[in-house]
Structure formats: structure tokens, C-alpha cells
Amino acid sequence: MLGIKEIEEIIPHRHPFLLIDYIEDYKPGEYAVGYKCVTFREDFFRG
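Above: the chain's sequence. Below: its structure in C-alpha cell form.
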């Protein structure tokens, strides 16, 4: 499993545009399975 620090080494996005919390499975150049934990406090829910 990859956390935020490892994800930031792979992709250029940073907060608030880093819309992923962790990657469960990853094969470079082929695929990634990641998750974003969403709560009601997220900025995009404020409208």
C-alpha cells in the first residue's frame, strides 16, 4: 500500500488537488487502484 508521501513521488498533484488518500495496488505504467476517503467536510461539498 502506498501512502501520501509515496503517491507524491509518482504524480505531480498536491493538496487540494491530490484527490487520493492511498493506493492499494500499483503496477507502474499499467494501472493503479486507489481510494479517496470522503467526508462532509470536504471543500467541494460546501458549494
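The mean pLDDT is 93.
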